[in-house]
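thread from #wetlab-drylab

HS: before we spend reagent money on co-crystallization trials with iron/sulfur cluster, can we at least see a predicted complex? here's what I'd submit
DV: go for it
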Amino acid sequence: MACSTATWRAPPWDFEAAQALSRSPGSTGAFLGAKTGTSMTLTPAEVLALLELPLFDLLDRARQVHVAHQPPGEIELCTLVNVKTGGCSEDCGYCSQSVRHPVARREPMLELRDVLAAAEEARQNGSARLCLGAAWPGPRGDRSFEQVLDMIGAVKRLGLETCVTLGRLSLEQAKTLKAAGLDVYNHNLDTSRDFYPHVVSTHSFEDRLETLRHVRAAGLRVCSGGIIGMGESLADRASLLAELAALDPPPESVPINALVPIPGTPLGDRPKIDALEVVRMVAAARIVLPRSRVRLSAGRKDLGREAQLLCLYAGANSIFWGDRLLTTDNAAPDTDRALLRAAGLRARAPEP
Ligand code: SF4
């Protein structure tokens, strides 16, 4: 599905008002950093109008918001480590870790010393955050959850920000993670509420929102975004962004993923998405989530250097660092060093 750019129509919402909405009370309107923003109530039609803008108009608007609300010249580097691979009972159509898909492979839980070695390497390479992923529908009440708690504490003591993605969480589990030293919990909304049942049948969009509520109630920061290129419409993408912007407060981190079709998964036959569609999604995310860090995530390697630079210009200010993500390849560190040099960006330090 291609973005429609043939007919320009003015967005039905007030850009200045939206920017004002994103400022905290008493703000001078100067740079406000990437702390928690203010939620925006936007209709999917309003976000769709943004996604349909002529490309350069959309980029101009996104850049204005980016410059007003984000630290200049800075990028966040995050390193992702899969601590438990495969064997997941859920059926997410994009994922090769589900036992329901023939590609699923299973590996035992990583040892703490392996995680610490990865964390130390990440720290030395300039990563601010280590993200630990486990292919679970949610943590079970067994030793494996305690192992993750130990990992969080140990990584935190190295001076890195900690993030985990473990599936659905109860409020109690979220509080336990917080007590272990966790900073951020990742739980993507993935796609629109309407399209969600086309991608996953073993849990619902509402389940996702419930976990995000538990994460917030426990005092954790939220990382939540989505995936494009799964066969959804442009209206679905708009609806996803409207849902994220309406979270109160919005996620501090918003990963934008492009589907990497993995043979053997239900979405393994999808064509790779056009790079400019990713650019558009990043730009629209920047406008509706002015104070969130927008992370250019899975699929980045396939975009090519110039499209990645456009994404960074349009408001992406976070990337995964390291040549492997949970189930797909990522850009090599040397390639990324050259990319960040070309863009004149420097890695941000971990937040205390
Ligand atoms: S995305 Fe997560 S919950 Fe879904 S199948 Fe993969 S590991 Fe399981």
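DV: Residues 88, 90, 92, 95, 97-98, 135, 137, 167 surround iron/sulfur cluster (CB under 6 Å).
HS: ok that's useful, forwarding to the group
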